[in-house]
């Protein structure tokens, strides 16, 4: 059994304090590409990635309660869940189904999605889907020798405002990226 990917999974951990060194633009593109290629139910890809610029940085830090990983990371990427776009009759959903069907009729996937869709739970579902993209991004960062920290603790309304998210999108997660200021601690996990 080839354990190379498992080794990188073992190496990934949540860095809480980053060095000020920046992240190379090429590495950032690879991290974003890893998220773009993540699996999603119904092929809906219900996410958008927002690279936090200097203009929004202070407001994002405030919305995330000035957590050390957020404040010290040289790069922050927010993942926004496309909640309103997920209505079964939206142009977005139709376009994704057409793409997913690869030239075949969309009737089957459309019927399955309509049976699944409930407006009262779609936001939580979309945020959960965003976590697939985040996991890919975190592992790609590790592969590139970058440290990362997924951050789920934030004020939703403040973060949406800080990121300039339009109505119908909600923050799912922040990812802090950079080079860690300390060595990885011993990995503590329950036995299999």
Structure description:
The chain is an alpha+beta fold. It has a domain at 15-86 and 123-178: NADH Oxidase (3-Layer(aba) Sandwich). It is 45% helix and 15% strand. The protein has eight helices and four strands. It has helices at residues 4-11, 25-36, 54-63, 68-72, 91-101, 107-116, 122-143, 156-163; strands at residues 47-51, 75-82, 147-151, 169-178. A four-stranded antiparallel sheet has the order 1-2-4-3, sandwiched between helices. It is globular, with a radius of gyration of 18 Å. The relative contact order is 0.25. The mean pLDDT is 96.
What's the total count of β strands?
4
Largest sheet strand order: 1-2-4-3
Mean residue pLDDT: 96
- Low-pLDDT parts are none
Q: What is the N-to-C order of secondary-structure elements (H for helix, E for strand)? A: HHEHHEHHHEHE
Helix content: 40-55%
The computed structural class is alpha+beta
> Which overall shape is indicated by the principal axes computed on the Cα atoms?
globular
Briefly note the CATH topology name of the domain at 15-86 and 123-178: NADH Oxidase
């Amino acid at each position: 059994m080839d354990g190379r990917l498992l080794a990188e999974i073992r190496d990934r951990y949540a860095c809480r304090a980053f060095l000020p060194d920046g992240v190379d633009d090429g590495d950032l593109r690879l991290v974003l590409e890893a998220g773009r290629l993540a699996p999603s139910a119904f092929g809906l890809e219900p996410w958008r990635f927002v690279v936090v610029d200097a203009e929004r940085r202070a407001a994002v830090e405030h919305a995330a309660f000035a957590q050390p990983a957020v404040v010290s990371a040289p790069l922050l990427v927010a993942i926004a869940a496309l909640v309103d776009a997920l209505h079964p009759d939206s142009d977005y959903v139709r376009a994704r189904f057409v793409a997913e069907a690869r030239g075949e009729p969309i009737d089957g996937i459309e019927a399955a999605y309509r049976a699944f869709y409930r407006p009262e739970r779609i936001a939580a579902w979309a945020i959960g889907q965003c976590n697939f993209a985040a996991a890919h991004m975190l592992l790609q960062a590790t592969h590139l020798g970058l440290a990362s920290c997924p951050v789920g603790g934030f004020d939703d309304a403040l973060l949406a405002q800080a990121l300039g998210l339009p109505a119908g999108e909600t923050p799912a997660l922040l990812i802090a990226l950079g080079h860690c200021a300390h060595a990885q601690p011993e990995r503590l996990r329950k036995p299999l």
